[in-house]
Amino acid sequence: MPDLQDLPESTTEADGSVIVRVLSYNIRSMRDDTAALARVIEACRPDVVCVQEAPRFFRWRKAAARLARTSGLVYVSGGATASGPMILSSLRAHVERTEDVLLPRTPGLHQRGFATAVLRFGRARLGVLSCHLSVEDWERYGQGRLLLDQLSAMDVPYAVAAGDLNDRPDGRTFGLLADALQDGWATKPWGREHTTRLGDPLQRIDVVLASEGVEVLGCGVPMGLPRVSERDLRAATDHLPVLAALRVPAS
């Protein structure tokens, strides 16, 4: 496995392809140490952040704007309007369009949704979807199908979906998505595998998934990356982030 410092940096290559760093992070509604959270995000130097459990209630827009500002990013889409999933980006990304999607709600269970955007990096276009799937297996599987339908409906040559699947690699929803998309960790493991809070049972339930044609250069939990301290990871939220470097062809 490569050294953590070897994850490729964001760049535009001679053929017009781009290397994009995508971070997926469940932030537990910013109920923990928001300064530590911002430090972790900023240290990962992402171009795109797919957030789960973004603030959804009182003054949620101000909280989202504060997180973006303190992390050196800008708000793109989602939050309360997607029932939790949210997308942030660096100024490197040009936002072509966004859409927040609310999924069919089962009485007694949480409302779920997708935050989506089409981003352009020079000559490369990338569809992005942030998700947080159900804790119930039968509902989660249906949401996995809707996720694939949504990516197809975005009508872009290349796409990435990232989020908290509430499912493990041996689960049927995880398997459904990994059969249709590249599982970043399984394709090019880098960093730490398991995404649950340090000290909790080891599980990999947070992912970055990429469509065919996107080259995964490395994907995993950035524990040990310079400036990403274990203390901040423990303080920021109850999940660990997943960072991926992806090469996206010009389109």
TrEMBL record:
Pfam families tied to this protein: Exo_endo_phos (PF03372)
Originating organism: Streptomyces xanthochromogenes
Domain Endonuclease/exonuclease/phosphatase per the UniProt entry, residue ranges: 23-239
Official protein name in the record: Endonuclease/exonuclease/phosphatase domain-containing protein
InterPro entries documented for this protein: Endo/exonu/phosph_ase_sf, Endo/exonuclease/phosphatase, GPI-anchor_lipid_remodeler
